[in-house]
Design brief:
CATH class of the largest domain: Alpha Beta
Bound molecules: zinc ion
CATH superfamily of the largest domain: Alkaline Phosphatase, subunit A
Number of strands: 17
CATH topology of the largest domain: Alkaline Phosphatase, subunit A
Shape: globular
Mean pLDDT: 96
Distance between the termini: 18 Å
Strand content: 15-25%
């Protein structure tokens, strides 16, 4: 098995290539390795469904993770649970494939990977809900020794979960794990850019700075690989999950359902720039609801309605009766989010200007300067498995590794 390090640059998309600097890690990966600039994200374009697709090679319809959070009608956002745990994924992951091939995995803030039996070392991505103890929950959801060591050694780099400290911390833990543990697959999720976009806007100076910081973090990780005996030939892979676009108009779909007399039949849950509608009772009729919503959809910031059949065609998760997408500049709040003063967000559908994500790989035997054509996000995991030389038959996507190897 060929070793690999997988770095997720949350919220990086194709419009960001112009912000790269020649001495940055991603510029180097593009020069010395292969890149795809049009990895089409999943619908809805959210962090958790996308990251699950990135490591399963399956769309939300198969993985079972189609939103960040399970449907929790009436629960304020800060009280909601997320799909934190590995058990929420219904199919095999790359980590399972590595373990089955005799390898060891290290995950750092990788989504939907808490309590993962396939992770030898796990620094978990989990939030504490009001009343919960952060230290206790973090230790319960990850690998206690690895977490405690990371805190003692690098805790000074972060201040809670604020960025850019958290991503500096994650990159430092990752570089240290590479040097000391030499995992077969290391996966790290860097949230810095996503955070800057939400708070300051898609193309804000803060977002551009975050792109540059991510490039420096990639340099640090590449240096750790080059300087560690046994890791020099490892593949360095960079991916992303979605872009973002600016939003300024809140859309309240709960109010719309109430105004149309549909709130006893369906509950809305926002995905940012889209939403899902879940049936609340037996016999709730989605066709009738769509017929009522269609004439007034524009008044409520809806640009597109998706029937269940259309959701199926987009490989969406089971559960929602129908869905919708926001008009340009609109963010759905579903009446619950207390946190919607964001300047930019995501969660959009196919064809959106921020749908093109990143796949880049560098390492011995990888073609230099090769540009891959567009591919669906489900092709990423089987391609990584192909590059690592491990079987991964559960993936539904296509393995493109041969195109990238000399
Ligand atoms: Zn994300």
């Amino acid at each position: 098995m060929r070793k690999a390090v997988l770095v997720s640059l949350d919220a990086f998309f194709d419009a960001d290539f112009r912000f790269l600097s020649p001495e940055g890690g991603l510029s180097r990966m593009i020069r010395e390795g292969s890149v795809c600039r049009q990895v089409k994200t999943v619908f809805p374009a959210l962090t958790y469904p996308a990251h699950v697709t990135l490591i399963t090679g399956c769309d939300p319809a198969d993985s079972g993770v189609g939103q960040n959070q399970p449907f929790q009608l009436g629960t304020p956002n800060r009280h909601r649970v997320w799909f934190w745990e590995r058990k929420h994924i219904a199919v095999s992951t790359l980590f399972d494939a590595v373990k089955a091939a005799g390898g060891r995995n290290c995950t750092v803030l990788w989504p939907v990977c808490c309590k993962n039996p396939a992770a030898r070392w796990c620094f978990p991505e989990v939030h504490t809900l009001p009343g919960e103890n952060t230290v206790r929950k973090t230790l319960q959801y990850g690998t206690p020794g690895f977490i405690l060591f990371s805190e003692l050694r690098f805790g000074k780099l972060r201040s809670g979960i604020a960025e850019p400290g958290l991503s500096n911390y994650a990159a430092a833990i990752t570089a240290r794990a590479i040097r000391r543990k030499k995992p077969d697959l290391t996966a790290v999720h860097l949230i810095d850019l996503d955070e800057m976009r939400h708070h300051h806007g898609t193309f804000s100076p803060e977002a551009k700075e975050a792109v540059r910081r991510n490039e420096m973090r990639l340099n640090d990780i590449a240096r750790a690989l080059a300087e560690t005996p046994g890791m020099e030939d490892a593949l360095l892979i960079a991916v992303s999950d979605h872009g973002q676009s600016d939003v300024e108009i809140p859309g309240n779909l709960t109010e719309m359902l109430q105004a149309l007399g549909l709130d006893r039949d369906f509950g809305a849950q926002s995905n940012g720039e889209s939403a899902y509608f879940f049936p609340l009772r037996e016999g709730a009729d989605p066709e009738a609801a769509l017929a009522k919503i269609a004439p007034v959809m524009q008044d409520h910031g809806i640009s597109k309605l998706y029937s269940r059949r259309e959701l199926d065609a987009m490989h969406c998760v089971a559960g929602p009766a129908f869905g919708c997408e926001a008009a340009d500049g609109v963010v759905f709040t579903d009446g619950l989010d207390e946190n919607k003063r964001e300047k930019a967000t995501h969660g959009f559908g196919p064809g959106h200007k921020a749908e093109n994500c990143l796949f880049a790989v560098m390492g011995k035997g990888v073609k230099a300067g090769y540009e891959m054509p567009s591919m669906p996000m489900r092709d990423v995991a089987p391609t990584i498995a192909g590059l690592m030389g491990i079987p991964f038959p559960s993936a539904k996507g296509t393995d493109h590794s041969r195109e990238m190897l000399v």
